[in-house]
Automatic annotation (TrEMBL):
<dbReference type="Pfam" id="PF00892">
    <property type="entry name" value="EamA"/>
</dbReference>
<feature type="transmembrane region" description="Helical">
    <location>
        <begin position="155"/>
        <end position="175"/>
    </location>
</feature>
<feature type="transmembrane region" description="Helical">
    <location>
        <begin position="127"/>
        <end position="143"/>
    </location>
</feature>
<feature type="transmembrane region" description="Helical">
    <location>
        <begin position="34"/>
        <end position="54"/>
    </location>
</feature>
<feature type="domain" description="EamA">
    <location>
        <begin position="9"/>
        <end position="143"/>
    </location>
</feature>
<dbReference type="InterPro" id="IPR037185">
    <property type="entry name" value="EmrE-like"/>
</dbReference>
<keyword id="KW-0812">Transmembrane</keyword>
<keyword id="KW-1133">Transmembrane helix</keyword>
<feature type="domain" description="EamA">
    <location>
        <begin position="153"/>
        <end position="286"/>
    </location>
</feature>
<feature type="transmembrane region" description="Helical">
    <location>
        <begin position="271"/>
        <end position="289"/>
    </location>
</feature>
<dbReference type="InterPro" id="IPR051258">
    <property type="entry name" value="Diverse_Substrate_Transporter"/>
</dbReference>
<dbReference type="InterPro" id="IPR000620">
    <property type="entry name" value="EamA_dom"/>
</dbReference>
<feature type="transmembrane region" description="Helical">
    <location>
        <begin position="101"/>
        <end position="120"/>
    </location>
</feature>
<feature type="transmembrane region" description="Helical">
    <location>
        <begin position="244"/>
        <end position="265"/>
    </location>
</feature>
<dbReference type="GO" id="GO:0005886">
    <property type="term" value="C:plasma membrane"/>
</dbReference>
<feature type="transmembrane region" description="Helical">
    <location>
        <begin position="182"/>
        <end position="203"/>
    </location>
</feature>
<keyword id="KW-0472">Membrane</keyword>
Length: 303
C-alpha cells in the first residue's frame, strides 16, 4: 500500500468517527446513554474478536510469552476508564449538539500533556501551553462568548475529554511490553460493554424494544466506528508518517460538524464557528509541532 492510499484510509477513519457522533446522538431518541454505551461496545468486542484470536495464535506460533495476569488486569482497567469516558460523552449528547461534542471531545489532545505533568511530572513540548489557551478561547467562543453559555451536555463532554486523557496516558503505560493491540482492544471493549449493561438497569429502562429501535445506531457506533475504523487505522498507520496520520485522523471533529449539519440540520453561530476553528488548530498544533520541531533538550549543568 502506498502512502496516498494509507492517508485515504485515515481520512475515511476520521469521517466514520465523525459520523459516529450523529449515530450516538440519534440513538438517544430510543435508548438510554448507559445502556447504549454497553451494547455499543459489546458489538465492538464481537467485531474485534476475530482479530484478537488471530493475534493470539500468531503470538503463540512465534513463541511469544503469554500475557500475565497483571497485563490482563491492566487491560480490564482500561475498559473501565473507557466506559466512564464514553458514558459521559453519551450523556452529554442528550443536551449538546453533534458539532460541539466533536470539537469538545477533541480537546483531550491538549489535556493529555497537562495531565501528564500533574500526575507523572512529564513535561510536554512548549507548544502545549499556548495551545491550551487557544483551546480555552475556542471553548468560550463555542459557548457564545460566555462561560454560562456552556450547556450541561457541553460540561459532560468536557468531562469525557478529561477521562479520555487519563485513558490515553494509561494506555501508553500499560501497552509497553505487551504489543497485542487487538487483544487489548477486545478486552477493553468487552469490559466496557459488560459494565454498561450491568449498570443500565439501575438508571434506565432495559428492554428489547429500545434495542430494536436503536439497532442501526448500535451497530454503526460499535461495529463500524469501533471495529472497522480501528482496523483501518491500524493498517494505514503502517504505511504513512505520524504527522500525516495526525492530520487525517483529527478530521473527526470537522466531519462531526459536517454530518451534524447535513443529517441533523444543526446550525452554529459565526462566533461558534470561530471557536471550532481555534480548537481544531490547537489540536493540530499539539499533534504536529512536536513531530516537526522537537523540543530542545535542557542544557546540562556542570557540577
Amino acid at each position: 500500500m502506498n502512502r496516498a492510499a494509507a492517508n485515504g484510509l485515515l481520512l475515511i477513519t476520521g469521517a466514520v468517527w465523525g459520523m459516529g457522533f450523529v449515530a450516538q446522538s440519534t440513538a438517544m431518541e430510543a435508548i438510554g446513554p448507559v445502556f447504549f454505551t454497553g451494547l455499543r461496545f459489546l458489538a465492538a468486542a464481537v467485531a474485534v474478536a476475530p482479530l484478537a484470536l488471530w493475534e493470539g495464535r500468531r503470538a503463540a506460533a512465534r513463541g511469544s510469552a503469554p500475557l500475565t495476569p497483571r497485563q490482563w488486569r491492566n487491560f480490564a482497567l482500561l475498559g473501565a476508564i473507557l466506559f466512564s469516558s464514553l458514558a459521559a460523552q453519551q450523556i452529554g449528547l442528550l443536551t449538546t449538539t453533534v458539532t460541539n461534542a466533536g470539537f469538545l471531545t477533541g480537546t483531550y489532545v491538549v489535556i493529555v500533556p497537562i495531565v501528564a505533568v500533574v500526575l507523572l511530572r512529564e513535561f510536554p513540548h512548549p507548544v502545549v501551553w499556548p495551545a491550551a489557551l487557544v483551546t480555552l478561547t475556542g471553548i468560550g467562543l463555542l459557548s457564545g462568548g460566555r462561560l454560562d453559555g456552556l450547556t450541561e451536555g457541553d460540561l459532560w463532554t468536557l468531562l469525557c475529554a478529561l477521562l479520555w486523557a487519563f485513558h490515553v496516558i494509561a494506555l501508553g503505560r500499560f501497552v509497553r511490553g505487551a504489543p497485542r493491540p487487538f487483544t487489548l482492544a477486545f478486552t477493553q471493549f468487552l469490559v466496557c460493554g459488560v459494565i454498561g449493561c450491568v449498570l443500565a438497569p439501575a438508571f434506565e429502562t432495559v428492554a428489547l424494544a429500545p434495542i430494536v429501535a436503536a439497532a442501526p445506531e448500535i451497530l454503526f457506533a460499535g461495529v463500524v466506528s469501533g471495529g472497522v475504523a480501528f482496523t483501518l487505522q491500524a493498517i494505514a498507520q503502517q504505511h504513512t508518517t505520524a504527522p500525516q496520520a495526525a492530520i487525517f485522523m483529527s478530521t473527526e471533529a470537522p466531519f462531526a460538524a459536517l454530518f451534524g449539519a447535513l443529517i441533523l440540520a444543526e446550525r452554529i453561530a459565526p462566533i461558534g464557528l470561530v471557536g471550532c476553528a481555534l480548537i481544531f488548530l490547537a489540536i493540530l498544533a499539539v499533534e504536529l509541532v512536536p513531530m516537526l520541531r522537537p523540543a530542545r533538550p535542557a542544557p546540562a549543568h556542570e557540577p
